[in-house]
């Protein structure tokens, strides 16, 4: 094997270290390295600050309300206070998750960074009637125009439009009651408490629909972004290629008194087949559903401007009929081009005929020709439009707790493949089972009485449930025993209770005889079975026959000072 000389290896290492030190001390190379690092940092910062990478209009959020604190079983024990009674406090309510509208936000990016939102749980109750502290609620900031849906059912829960508006999406559970709350004139010392109610948990689907007065529509590269930059202070990305705009852009037109305060929304261009998912436009059409007026920008340099207009309207009809019925203003753009200028009158007349109205105007967004006139007319036209809303959609109230449901709303399920097993489902009864403190026999009895009061036990008997059948409520299983005390104890707790854990003794088993003890050592407490008279037996009654007392003389039992009672 080849073995390298140590001296030679040392010289190679020394040359390498010397070269590195020279490069480090070279000012020209050091300056070049600093410039390169600065350019990299600047490029990275520009990418991070690019609004196209920050805009998010959809998000999924998992919200969890805080669990309520458990109640306490305690009794007052103080000097001079005999039989002080129950003093267990109730638990605190869990925190609630709310969505709050904030006009300073225009994207759902913060919700993408934190998907799970959990509120604080309430503290448990204590003795001396001390209630637990409530959990802290959490408010999540969202931009105006946020639409909230339940992810599982896709039902609309609400929409946030105004600044400061709030929507409850996950209510915290209420605190469990302590034994002081169960005190009655007939039950002065109850040993019963409740667990805290679990907080609501669900997935939400959140969409952002920008609020604007006028929404821009048109084919890609029709000049929509140029028009937005000419009419407002917005600076969208503008280039001479299709799909330059990949995210919606907002701008406020403030060009004089006529067009002050007009909010404009520019979305990516639409192409044929957009209603089926082609292109970028369908993903952002929701942003113009809240607009009062649609501004249809037609590219005058297109091969067939009239056909482009028809294609866009057809895609709107297939995407949403309500959106296609919104009032439109048609604009022929790029009249600064000589070819378009020559055919301007002909194209305008054809657009009026196809559109069915006379709200058609020719402009040049690049040279701002007639842009101010267009904004003034749009302002007056938008102000004259009534406040339009979307058609009513099925809604769901996310602020309703489980105990707000009707107690009679339950369902009993059974499977013929598993005879003798019954599943009871219902928001109210399942929540009752969750807060029941199964370690306390009185709480178990109360759960049984609730099943009777709601009518579940009667319904089980009507459907053929037999004594000993398995009944399941949420994650708790027990045997069905109608008319008995404490029949609703889960299996996992039966072994912990010595009363229910020990097997019953058979009646045929003989009891173990106690050893004989002298009378002075406590034998007088023992029962001698041999000396007992069996009055249930025929031969036992011979001692009471009259022949046994034939030689009885009453005078033998009368003494000198005795008083004899005689009947008159």
What structural class do helix, strand and pairing data support? alpha/beta
Q: Would you report the number of β strands?
A: 18
Low-pLDDT sequence parts = 38-49, 497-503, 505-509, 532-537
Note the total helix count. 15
Largest sheet: 6 strands, mixed
* Fraction of residues in helix: 25-40%
Proportion of beta-strand residues:
15-25%
Mean pLDDT: 76
Q: How would you describe the shape?
A: elongated
How does this model look, in words?
With 568 residues, the chain is of the alpha/beta class. The chain contains 15 helices and 18 strands. Helix 6 runs parallel beside helix 9. The longest helix has 23 residues, at 27-49. The protein is elongated. The termini are far apart. Residues 38-49, 497-503, 505-509 and 532-537 have low confidence and may be disordered.
């Amino acid at each position: 094997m080849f073995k390298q000389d140590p001296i030679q290896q040392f010289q190679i290492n020394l040359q390498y270290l010397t070269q590195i030190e020279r490069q480090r001390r070279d000012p020209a190379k050091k300056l070049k390295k600093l410039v390169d690092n600065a350019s990299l940092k600047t490029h990275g910062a520009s990418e991070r600050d690019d609004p196209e990478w920050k805009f998010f209009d959809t998000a999924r959020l998992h919200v969890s309300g805080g669990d309520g604190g458990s109640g306490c079983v305690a009794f007052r024990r103080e000097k001079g206070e005999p039989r002080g009674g129950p003093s267990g406090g109730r638990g605190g309510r869990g925190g609630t998750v709310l969505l709050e509208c904030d006009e300073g936000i225009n994207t759902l990016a913060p919700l993408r960074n934190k998907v799970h939102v959990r509120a604080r749980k309430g503290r448990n109750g204590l003795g001396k009637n001390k209630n637990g502290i409530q959990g802290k609620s959490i408010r999540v900031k969202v931009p105006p125009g946020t639409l909230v849906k339940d992810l599982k059912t896709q039902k609309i829960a609400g929409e946030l439009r105004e600044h400061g508006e709030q929507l409850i999406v996950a209510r915290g559970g209420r605190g469990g009651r302590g034994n002081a709350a169960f005190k009655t004139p007939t039950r002065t010392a109850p040993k019963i408490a409740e667990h805290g109610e679990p907080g609501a948990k669900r997935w939400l689907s959140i969409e952002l629909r920008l609020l604007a007065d006028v929404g821009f529509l048109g084919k890609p590269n029709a000049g929509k972004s140029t028009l937005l930059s000419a009419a407002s202070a917005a600076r969208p990305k503008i280039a001479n290629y299709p799909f330059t705009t990949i995210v919606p852009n907002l701008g406020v037109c403030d060009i004089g008194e006529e067009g002050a305060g007009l909010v404009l929304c520019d979305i990516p261009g639409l192409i044929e087949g957009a209603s089926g998912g082609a292109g970028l436009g369908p993903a952002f059409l929701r942003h113009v559903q809240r607009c009062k007026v649609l501004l249809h920008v037609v590219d005058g340099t297109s091969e067939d401007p009239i056909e482009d207009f028809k294609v866009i309207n057809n895609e709107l009809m297939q995407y949403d009929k309500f959106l296609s019925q919104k009032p439109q203003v048609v604009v022929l753009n790029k009249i600064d081009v000589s070819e378009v200028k020559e055919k301007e009158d002909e194209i305008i007349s054809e657009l009026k005929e196809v559109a069915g109205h006379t709200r058609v105007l020719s402009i040049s967004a690049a040279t701002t020709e007639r842009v101010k006139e267009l904004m003034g007319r749009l302002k007056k036209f938008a102000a004259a439009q009534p406040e339009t809303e979307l058609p009513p959609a099925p809604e769901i109230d996310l602020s309703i707790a489980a105990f707000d449901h009707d107690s009679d709303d339950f369902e009993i399920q059974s499977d013929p493949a598993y005879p003798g097993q019954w599943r009871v489902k219902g928001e109210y009864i399942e929540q009752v089972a969750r807060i029941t403190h199964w370690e306390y026999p009185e709480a178990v009895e109360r759960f049984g009485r609730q099943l009777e009061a709601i009518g579940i036990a009667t319904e089980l008997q009507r459907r053929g449930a037999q004594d000993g059948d398995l009944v399941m409520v949420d994650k708790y299983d027990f045997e069905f025993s109608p008319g008995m005390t404490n029949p609703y104890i889960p299996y996992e707790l039966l072994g912990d209770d010595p009363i229910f854990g020990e097997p019953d003794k058979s009646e045929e088993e003989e009891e173990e005889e106690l050893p004989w003890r002298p009378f002075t050592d406590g034998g007088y407490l023992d029962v001698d079975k041999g000396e007992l008279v069996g009055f249930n037996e025929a031969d036992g009654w011979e001692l009471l026959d009259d022949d046994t007392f034939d030689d009885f003389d009453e005078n033998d039992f009368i003494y000198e000072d005795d008083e004899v009672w005689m009947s008159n």
